[in-house]
């Protein structure tokens, strides 16, 4: 395989004529059979780095991702390009999973998408060695690290696949953000044969990062959006605020709508399309908005609420300016935000005994007997659960998250599974049935005209669409499907929208439920450290915003010159070069002695008025201090 072959595939299937530089490097690494960790910022084209090489290879590419909605979206996109792809996730029945795996083994499929908790199940591992794998792509790879901000125990089991497949199959781990510690962890836990990290700089030179400490966020937002041009995103923390802020903007003649996970799939799709195509100017959203966004000309991303980690902030703000034109990432910040964020530690880490209470209540609610339940998947109605046991929603959610982190269960937030149909009779037997049952003939023909693949796999069907095509009521369509299913002509799984709980271990008695105090405290400590860095970013008015973010991810950088901190410094009427030279000289002097300001000015070989400006700036921004004798000391440890 060579890069020219990859370019031909790229043009044929995706319509692009050239790769981005890092994409080429990643594909060359994979083509050489190397395990590869690729760090690419949001919108960097991660999916193409495994999709194109897989198309150039014999066999099927296994893609592991925890985002079920993204999985479905990518499978639909690939199939629309006539690239046969299939998905396996926890919202499917065992029969569906078995059929999907058999099709992946014997059918002409190029991509098999799997959620991480399915990887270690008996049914998957039992068939893994029969899959003709060309590549294993692990998306959201930071989830494998206990040091990361989104750790998932199911990722720890991915490396077990190496025992069931050829050792020639390379692993490609992908993530948009990872600290140096997480990078090492990913390669270790995926059992890389040798260390191999490919990364592009996270530096977004066209984004101006701003922190605005404002008392009235509503007033600031309205005034800013009336002055700003182009479209953008306003991120908020809650669904309630989502609607409130969108209504505030609309009432002030700003084109806006809101988006969160509680909306129906149809509504979310239509609102995303409306924003992407420019019909809606501003989308007010929770962090549910962002996955699969393909809009380059986003001029601003504004955070109404402060995120709980640099990783989340960097990823969300990075959705601005993908067209490389000037864009803004604004964080609105008040002292109340800081208090709320610090208070979130208490809510996020309920007492260990409370976590055990929620475990037992969950098992009882789902009627899981002691010693059983391993690999079982249950629909989980959170509202009904907290109502029945009179539990606080946020504390319950965080208890479930901690039980997931400890590896006892997996908890997915609401996913929408459409109805699925699979013909379980042969075409000949179906024809005989149609002849003998004329009342079903036109409906069966409608199904076969509307959908392909019904004889080989479960196919998503839409009862409303079938209703419109046939001029029959939705209930009539539903009754036809139910009756055909009861007559063993089809298998029909009605659609539903639900959260899921997957037991990764059998139900244990309370005293056997081990939640390590040491682990609990370490996780809490790491969370607090991430909060501290996020607060430090918001509080600081002396460190270049871009440098602060890049340093967090282990990258050295020069001042950006366009963030709010750099702009303040630019008001000194000094070039970046002059300012940095004078600061460097002052730092050298103060490392050896402690002169007063007048003495310091004489010791620096730059024009006096410029040195005085820099000294004032350093004093104003607490980079240097004066004692009672007016002697200067260097405070910063940059």
Describe the structure.
- The chain has 638 residues and is an alpha/beta fold.
- The protein folds into five domains: 3-199, Rossmann fold; 207-333, Rossmann fold; 342-417 and 499-515, Winged helix-like DNA-binding domain superfamily/Winged helix DNA-binding domain (Arc Repressor Mutant, subunit A, Orthogonal Bundle); 419-494, Arc Repressor Mutant, subunit A, CATH 1.10.10; 572-634, Orthogonal Bundle (Arc Repressor Mutant, subunit A), CATH 1.10.10.10.
- The protein is 46% helix and 16% strand.
- The strands form five sheets. It has a seven-stranded parallel sheet with strand order 3-4-2-5-6-1-7, with helices on both faces. Strands 8-13-12-9-11-10 form a six-stranded parallel sheet, with helices on both faces. It has a three-stranded antiparallel sheet with strand order 14-19-15.
- A hairpin with a 5-residue loop joins strand 20 and strand 21 (632-634).
- The longest helix has 23 residues, at 517-539.
- The protein is elongated and about 105 Å long.
- It starts with a helix and ends with a strand.
- The model has no long low-confidence stretch (mean pLDDT 90).
């Amino acid at each position: 395989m060579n890069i020219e072959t990859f370019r031909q595939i790229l043009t044929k299937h995706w319509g692009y004529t050239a790769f981005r530089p890092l994409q080429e490097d990643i594909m060359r690494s994979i083509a050489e059979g190397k395990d590869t960790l690729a760090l690419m910022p949001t919108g960097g084209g991660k999916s193409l780095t495994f999709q194109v090489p897989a198309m150039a290879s014999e066999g099927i590419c296994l893609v592991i991702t925890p985002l079920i909605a993204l999985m479905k979206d990518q499978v639909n996109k690939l199939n629309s390009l006539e690239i046969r792809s299939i998905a396996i996730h926890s919202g499917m029945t065992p029969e569906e999973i078995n059929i999907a795996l058999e099709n992946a083994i014997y059918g002409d499929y190029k991509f098999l998408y799997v959620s991480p908790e399915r990887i270690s199940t008996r049914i998957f591992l039992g068939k893994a060695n029969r899959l003709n794998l060309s590549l294993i792509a692990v998306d959201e790879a930071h989830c494998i690290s206990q040091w990361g901000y989104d750790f998932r125990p199911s990722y720890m089991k991915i490396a077990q696949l190496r025992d069931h497949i050829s050792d020639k199959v390379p692993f490609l781990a992908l993530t948009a953000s990872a600290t140096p510690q997480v990078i090492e962890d990913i390669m270790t836990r995926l059992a890389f044969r040798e260390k191999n990290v490919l990364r592009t700089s996270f530096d977004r030179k066209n984004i101006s990062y701003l922190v605005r400490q404002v008392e009235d966020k509503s007033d600031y937002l309205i005034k800013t959006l009336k002055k700003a041009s182009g479209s953008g995103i306003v991120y908020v923390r809650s669904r309630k605020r989502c609607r409130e802020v969108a209504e505030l903007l609309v009432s002030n003649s700003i084109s806006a709508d809101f988006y969160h996970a509680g909306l129906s799939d149809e509504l979310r799709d239509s609102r995303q399309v409306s924003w992407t195509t420019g019909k809606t100017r501003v989308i007010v959203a929770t962090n549910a908005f962002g996955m699969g966004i393909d809009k380059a000309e986003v001029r601003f991303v504004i955070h109404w609420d402060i995120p709980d980690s640099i990783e989340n902030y960097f990823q969300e703000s990075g959705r601005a300016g993908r067209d490389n034109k000037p864009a803004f990432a604004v964080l609105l910040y008040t002292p109340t935000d800081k208090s709320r964020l610090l208070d979130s530690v208490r809510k996020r880490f309920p007492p260990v005994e409370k976590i055990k209470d929620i475990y037992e209540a969950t098992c009882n609610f789902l009627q899981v007997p002691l010693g059983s339940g391993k690999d079982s998947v249950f629909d989980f109605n959170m509202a009904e659960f907290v109502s029945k046991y009179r539990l606080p929603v946020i504390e319950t959610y965080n208890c479930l998250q901690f039980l997931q982190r400890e590896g006892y269960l997996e908890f997915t937030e609401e996913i929408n599974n459409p109805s699925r149909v699979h013909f379980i009779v042969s075409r000949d037997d179906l024809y005989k049935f149609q002849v003998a049952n004329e009342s079903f003939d036109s409906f069966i023909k409608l199904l076969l005209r509307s959908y392909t693949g019904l004889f080989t796999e479960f196919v998503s069907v839409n009862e409303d669409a079938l209703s419109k095509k046939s001029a029959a009521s939705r209930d009539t369509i539903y009754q036809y499907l139910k009756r055909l299913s009861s007559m063993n002509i089809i298998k029909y799984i009605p659609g539903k929208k639900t959260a899921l709980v997957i037991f990764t271990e059998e139900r244990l008695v309370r005293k056997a439920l081990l939640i390590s105090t040491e682990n609990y405290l370490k996780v809490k400590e790491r969370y607090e450290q991430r909060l501290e860095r996020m607060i430090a970013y918001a509080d600081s008015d002396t460190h270049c915003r871009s440098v602060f973010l890049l340093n967090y991810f282990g990258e050295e950088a020069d001042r950006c010159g366009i963030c709010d901190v750099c702009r303040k410094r630019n008001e000194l009427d000094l070039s970046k070069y002059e300012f940095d030279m004078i600061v460097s000289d002052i730092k050298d002097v103060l490392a050896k002695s402690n002169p007063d300001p007048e003495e310091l000015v004489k010791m620096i070989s730059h024009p006096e008025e410029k040195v005085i400006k820099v000294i004032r700036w350093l004093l104003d921004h607490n980079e240097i201090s004066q004692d009672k004798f007016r002697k200067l000391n260097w405070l910063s440890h940059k």
